Amino acid sequence: MKKVSVQCRNIRLAYGSTEVLKNVNLDIQPGEFFALLGPSGSGKSTLLRLIAGFNKHQHGELLVDGRDIGQQEPWDRNIGMVFQSYALWPHLSVWDNVAFGLVERKVDKVTLHTKVAAALELVGLSAFGERKPNQLSGGQQQRVALARTIVIEPQVLLLDEPLSNLDKTLRVQMRQELLSLQRRLGITTIFVTHDQEEAMTTADRMAVLDQGVVQQVGSPVELYDEPVNAFVANFVGTMNMLDAKVISQHADHLVLDVMGVGQVTLPLASEVAVDSKKFANGQSVQLSFRPHAVKLDVNTSTSDQSAIRIQGTVEASEFMGESTRYRVRVGQQSLSVDQAHYAGLPKLTVGTSLNLILPPSQVRLFEV
User: How many other CB atoms sit within 10 Å of the CB of residue 96?
Assistant: First the structure.
């Protein structure tokens, strides 16, 4: 099967005066597993349905393999979609559910039998052909929905939050199976989810949307380590934010007045995550860092003289298995700090005074 690209060019979609998608531009590579990530109402499902043909945009181009399909009806597009509810026919057997699309296309019986058998084998359901959907588990029903979609050999596979109806353990198993299946087929796949973990563990690249606008596109590591704004930083993972003002900027360092911390000097070196652009004196910014980037130190000294030291007090904790997340009071704000857990490690009690040791390389600044 030929791998195809999907491109959105300045796509806008509105319902009356309400803009749902605003100048969306995306380049999805042939054979890529691409995720659309965002909160409810961000436009991700609307964009997926637009690609499927269920929504029509008022401006822009939708290209598949370089060809504009924006005016084609859904049934004329060689695109398959797996819905959140699976949408299986309850009165049909697994075999007949998978065969449905081929029957509609009037495929001959020999070819139909061969393709349905191959699709069921691909998803591990060869022995379940005679069962009805209500005789299957949630994970098995999802496999039927996948088999029904891939049996028609679509150029593009669309997945609309297909794991949301499964429990946590099964979601982990199924996302691994989804990725394995996509790799074997080599089919360009677009996956919608609001779950950052699902997106980060499956996607080659992903786009974060908010209020119909693409905020950032990149690999999971790029979006996690190098978010372009505070929204992406807070949506992809957890981020601490401290309000600050720029006191002065020099050739190799930046001086900030950080609320609850005091004066902080950040080096502007290539290995430091702070952008070396010009900041105006007095400009409001947010100093941000991830919870795991901080070292907890109940002593007053550290060997890292370049580290930022923040004094705080433990006000709560959550044991999360592989780590403990402490909530640390710093001035009028609470920060999240993760400490890796191992057997025998004593837990810090509420009220413990400590220092947070933060390497400058783990800091990012965002304009307010």
Answer: 16
